[in-house]
Design goal:
This protein is α+β, with helices and mostly antiparallel strands. It has 2 domains: 72 residues, Roll (PH-domain like); 48 residues. It has 3 helices and 7 strands. Strands 1-2-3-4 form a 4-stranded antiparallel sheet, with no helix packed on it. A 3-stranded antiparallel sheet has the order 5-6-7. β5 and β6 form a beta hairpin.
């Protein structure tokens, strides 16, 4: 049975910024009844837009960004999930809690992780999948 790895990224949002984001969501939600009472032209359209934006922001705040490594693919989980095959990467390294994924098209992804993973074992596992090594 082949291993899989799940790396969870560190929360790099400061608590004050997080509180401010929550307050903005609450303000948007409270504006919807005000728009209904005032009856400005196209109030229903503005109310729908505020509701949708508030739900998207709420979802983004609750989201735990992570990356899932399996033998078939790599999935970056975020607001939008992105699935990649191993063939699009030139190198993947986990060193001192910093995940570095080097794409073949000269893009680079770096993010600190909270996951307790044996770095040497993870790097060897990734190299086997990247370069087709047996073991």
């Amino acid at each position: 049975m082949d291993k899989t790895y799940l790396l969870i990224f560190k929360n790099d949002i400061k608590p004050l910024v997080n509180i401010t984001r929550w307050m903005l969501i609450i303000i948007k939600v409270l504006l919807i009844p005000v728009l209904l009472i005032i009856r400005i032209p196209y109030f229903w359209l503005i109310a729908i837009i505020l509701a949708v934006v508030s739900m998207l922001e709420y979802h983004a705040l609750k989201l735990v960004p992570s990356v899932y490594f399996s033998s078939g693919s790599i999935i970056f989980k975020g607001i939008v999930n992105k699935k990649y095959s191993w063939s699009v990467f030139a190198n993947i390294v986990l060193k001192d809690g910093l995940l570095t994924a080097d794409f073949k098209d000269n893009r680079l992804f770096q993010k600190e992780t909270d996951s307790a993973v044996n770095e040497q074992e993870f790097n060897d596992w990734c190299n086997r999948h990247l370069y087709g090594l047996k073991g």
